Protein 1
Amino acid sequence: MNQIFSKNVNKLPKIFLLAFIFFFVIVILIIWNLFSPWHTDVGYKPKQPIPYSHELHVSKLGIDCRYCHINVENSTIAGIPSTKICMNCHMNIKNDSINLVNLNYSWENDLPIEWIRIHKLPDYVYFDHSAHVLSGVGCVECHGRIDKMITVKLEKPLSMYWCFECHRDPYKNLRPLDKITDMNWKSDENWLMIAKNVYKNINPPVESCSGCHR
Amino acid sequence: MNIVVTKNDKKENKKIEANLFANNLDFVFNKLNFSLNRRQFLKLIGASFILLSGITTSCRRPEIKIMPYTKNQKDMIPGLANYYSTSMPVTDNSIGLTVKSCEGRPIKIEGNKMHPFSLGYSNIYTQSSILELYDPDRSRNVKRKDINNQFIKSSWNDWDFYFNELFNKYSNSNGKGLSFLIGNNLNSLSILKLFNIINKKFFNSNFYFYDPLYNSVFKKSLNIFFETNVSYLNIFSNANLIVTINSDPLMDYSTGIINSVGYSKKKKIYSSTDCLNANRLYSIEANLSVTGMNADHRLIISENDSESFLRLLIYKLLSDNKLKWPDEFSISLSKEKFLDSLNIMENVFKDNESVIKFINILNKDLVQNLSRTLIISNNCNNINVNILTFLLNYILLGYKNTFEIYENNFNDYFKGNFDSIKELCNNIKENKIETLIVIASNPSYNFPKELEFNRISKNIKEIININMYENETSLISNWHLPLSHFLESWLDLVSLDGTISLSQPLIQSLTNSRSILDFFLQFSNIKQQSLQFIKKNFYDLNLVNNENEWKKIIHDGIFLKTKSKVKDKIFFNFNKIYESLNKFSIYKTSFDSLELVLKFSYSLLDGRYSNLSWLQELPDPITKLTWDNAVLISPELANKYGINSDVQKGGYKAEIIKLISKNVSIETPAFIVPGINKYSIISFLGYGRTNSGYIGTNIGIDFYPFLNENGDFIVNGIKISKTNKFVYLACSQNQLAVNDRDLSNNVILHLGDRPIVRSKSISEYIDNFDVFKEYNLSDELLEKKSDGYKKMPLQMTDPWKYNNNKWGMVIDLSLCIGCNACSIACQAENNIPIVGKIQVRKGRIMSWIRIDRYFLGNVNNPKIINQPMLCMHCENAPCEPVCPVAATVHDSEGLNTMVYNRCIGTRYCANNCPYKIRRFNYLDFTNSGDLYVDRINKDREKILKMQKNPDVTIRYRGVMEKCSYCTQRIQEAKSRARREGLDYNNLPNDYLIPACAQACSTNAIIFGNMNAKNSNVLLLKMLDRNYDLLEELNIRPRTSYLVKLQNINLGFN
């Protein structure tokens, strides 16, 4: 009697099984990738009310981060500069530029500029700028090359996994306290040798939930 | 910086998509003219699913805006809190406060360390006044009655216009027919000045004062005894022997904080010398008060009999010749004549052996502690009791140490509460009053009902009600004007000892209101800002001379004393004293003729705090009752009448009894409390408000009808009858207890050999320093090596070593007076929601720190121990291994942390916690979710959320929570230490303090770093009084307790 199915058909269940596993893994990987902050958040680059260019102000004009973000060393919040800080210069410089319409409007009417928030940690995380800055974490570590951005975008995912990359082994991301705002500074072998001594008391919360969550 | 979330809700989008699709489906099909078979339908559904998921996943997170200031605010750094000094007016006193303000929102109130009536500590009233500020039910509009007698919205312009007319009208008649009724905020230099101006302008007008909390009888007695107008201060810290007579100085509204601070000074027993210096507290009372709970000895007698008791006490004291009759007395009154006036033959106690024994022992003790004794009758409404107290204090040489008298210029205006309102009501009856301006008072509710204010108020042409809330009086008034909270207004206040303190606004008025000073400025027609007026007044009085001094007052919140202490020159008017003492009326109480004692509720006082949910849900210190009041009766009285109130599952099942007096009869639930006089019924005023906002309306029973026009807070000749009706009350303790109790048995709690609450007497301790060893675990159960401070139960693994900070807490049971300040402080700090009466009955109260009250010993005169219970942060925490998602884990500094985001709500941890301190959000108590929306609460929350501490997560439904040792304060302190260049891994001892310990006026809660140098927590943990709760479970709690030491007089044995 003839066989209804050829011998090759015996392979089918195995192929199906393998295909299914393969498919399953792919789906997990896709979800993992697409739903992670790396995919959903990184690159967020909204249009701001004033086309403020960090590249111009930081790279070309050489203004320090702390000229505008005044509270970064003594508060949990670095602080978005008040209109007054912008007007310190723009009272005289390029005051009639079309880009500064919203700025002038804010100044004249005493209304806040409505910046759109880019760097936002998940709810239920309490982040302290001063603690990080005073421990030798540079601005660039979390905010990326702000000095190269014409419009600010989110470069790092700001996820807990990403936080832990540094918290578990902080030394490679630390820098001397006078280089905190330096965007171009690169750590080298020599620094890595002495970093452990400079920051020997550093004790970032790794296992302790209470370090960041309250 | 304000961060505003613009709603771009995914769920909302999804819904709109689905609706659009469903509506358009038929239309589309009809137009395309094709029929739909199963396969096509599935295709379509699949396609739309992909489309929908594509749309929803591509939805970005909600757009959040950051709005910086246009100009930087001075001293304001976003993310860091600011602290400002202000002060709170309380009856005739003021309490200095330090208010934490986050980005312009005051969020937490602490005491001002420099203020003599706060000393940095706080009580439930100062703590919860922050909630009063944000109360959504505060009146927001000027309202007036229109022609149809309907309340309509009006405006300040209308009022100003109307007032000008009124002002002109009364200017012509010099204020004839104009009257003011004032409820609070009196001791102020500015208001005093304005009083004088108004009085001069309208010399025919009248001022009346009524504040039920103000004891005008005590004031009257002071005037009789000292002749001059003085204020009287008890100095607890110097007293070795304290006797309270029907008074509750530890919970007093105006001086409670410093009283308990002083009281605790000599209760801190950490060494054998402390034992010898310990003070002793006797309470003579009918009620079981908070002070009585802490008394070393209580004598339970009717309030009516307290005068008899005091007469007999003084008679015995003087007739034994152990005590000298002062020479300055002999000039005007001989000792014999005085003893005669005590009229001892009529005394009810002259044959009562147990009372005479008590008096003899007490007298011996009093003579031994001469000049270090303090007799207190501040809350007594009996002139003779007060006079005898002053006399006793004087002849026991208390003026040397234990009380101080200050000159008083202010209370001249306070003609005496009840005399004042009697006069007012007489004038109303005689149609003498055309316009009555009611300021911060509520005559419709808290006037004695005998005066029938509501009925006779129709004789008044118009009532202008100025109050923070629309209350009962608003209903009968023609104008209602919103009044500012003290945190919104400028005011200068004078304390009892003459310290001037300043109230400064922390926030602009939230309710379009005006401050009390603004109103007085308007009445006196002074067109000046209240700040300018105060400042000018200070300059005029030469209190400040330059701007720097003024700035310093604003910064410190207080100013130096202005009143002088009256020292040796005390003149006595013995004629009046003699005359008063000769009037001796005795009322004998019995089961047929009971006395009803009216007390102010511990939470709501006279009803002024009835709309504050924190205080409504705060368990009463004695009964642990929430959201209700009931009359307290003794077990003996309950047996006599067969009243069957008892704890049951799902609440306290209270029998409703009927109280019948001559004029009034009221049905009320009865609560059986051990240690109450058998002939007394204790009731609490402040409940039963009929118009008090969303929270406080129609809660409990109003006992004001029993208050008579003379202001006797005691009603004699009460009869009770059973109604056989029952009602369930919500208690925070006992109703979930497992083992049964038997009230007929003498022992109430069977605690076994190793009790949860432990107490010893000091004499036992001095006799035998090993007295606490009886509680120890047997030696074979203990580890050989010690963990730094104490032997621990046996354990297989080595304990974890903490190299950095290591937090710990000690609670001294001798010091905890059960005042609940820690509970409210925690509620304010940690954003703890309230749950409501029904949920409390289900045992779902959310307070992170609760105070358990235990009765021990004789049911008629029990010993009471208060035990604060909060998360113990156990080293071998039983909650941690049972959590399936590791939502509760240890951190590197020994805290048992709760990770809200991980919690899935299995409640295994709460079930495995032996202390039952974990709290579960069964419902959306914080009104933060959108799954189930309670519209009213959601709207209320919009305002209430301004109070929330931004450093603490708001917990949503289905999440477990518990005490975190104020982890946000720990993190803040570490961050602060880093900025200050300190070693944040090893914080100094007193670098931070959790909210409960900060509020605690007796320092019963001590928190600190056990690895710090000279750690006081570690020192206390090394005391032999220190014990771990349920030590045999080897869970190694981080919070431990010190055994309560009572200073028992051996004469009683």
Protein 2
Amino acid sequence: MTIATSLDPPQGFRHEAFLYSGDESFLSGTVPFIEKGVGGGESVLVVVNARKTDMLRAELGQMADGVAFADMDQVGRNPARIIPAWRKFVDENSGRSQPMRGIGEPIWAGRTDAELAECHHHEALLNVAFLTTKQFWLFCPYNTKTLGSDVIERMAANHPILFDGEKTSESQAYDFDVALSKLFYEPLAEPLSDPMELAFSAQSLGELRRWVAQRALAAGLDAPRVDDLVLAVNEIATNSVKHGGGYGQLRIWDEEGAIVCDIFDDGHIRHPLAGRELPDREQDRGRGLWLANQVCDLVQIRSSADGTMVRLRQTNRAPAGN
Amino acid sequence: MTATSAQGWVVLKISGEVDLARLQELEDLVAANSAQFSNMVFDLTDVTFMDSTGLGWLIRSRDLLLGQGRLCSVVVPDALDRLFGAAGLTDYFETYRSTEAAVRGRETP
């Protein structure tokens, strides 16, 4: 079904994929969208890479003053950090009683398979996170020239509305429940090299930390990145001890330029947005998954009644944010 | 861990690693030093590792102290900035870089 293409703000949350093919096509879809928002006094946030930010600033001229920009390479290095960025935008601006609109491009041709899997989960979770948000239009550009058909298919399943640069339509493939059901069940790839393994319990968390630190340093990770990984491993392992039966297993291996850890326990993580919601400052528990997402390049959660696995991936690329 | 007193302040100096295995010990320490109803400084200068269990303990301790009308300050070394920052707690506690600064900073002029 085709929807009339109007740029007026939506009543609720409008999650829309924008299919483009190259720079000109990208601008022809995003610039009018932004201009309508700025012209209407709306709050506008654009999260794309630095090159696209420069391109947009050049096109928008003075109008760019009315737009907030953030670098997706920083914000979305770990895709689980993207929803918190939009949450912050919505929370800071919803008091204004003006509509909000944003552009977010989390998927590009250089993403690894593991990152891509988590980007798809992130897109599906946007439908959960902002289900009841009023007057928030999120535009997600996808480059049809560089992305495979499997990515475009998944995109259609995650976005209720599709815009191809000319026509707007309801996505026939959109299925809220199917997208959510894939979230914690989609299998992860087998380790690329022989893992080393260690079991742990509450008493051996210190030994686990030292063991992981040694492996990570030996694999060539810089000290600050090792510290970050050790903190994340410790948080997940502590969750295993507290919620996963009192014990767990870790396996660790090298991949090119990265070190990867899987942590297994008998617990069951149910909350779809686990690790993607900034904990209230006053709360004295429930920070583990959040912290892991802040300090690791990728965190992949797979969980069911049969148990939980959390995969952490760490590289030497500079940490985002602080 | 040591507890010392200075001008109406109790200073709890924590050393080594702070994780789940240490939680009971840390909670007992705060309880054992609460009888005097003095203000409290948590000196984390010599902490070599801390996690969200440690943050949770600090938050509960702060709640307890403030609830009793006592002051609570934390001495945070550079090495722990990343933890506090990632947890969104950078401005949550009254933080200082030394116990002297903590005690001096909160005295009424």
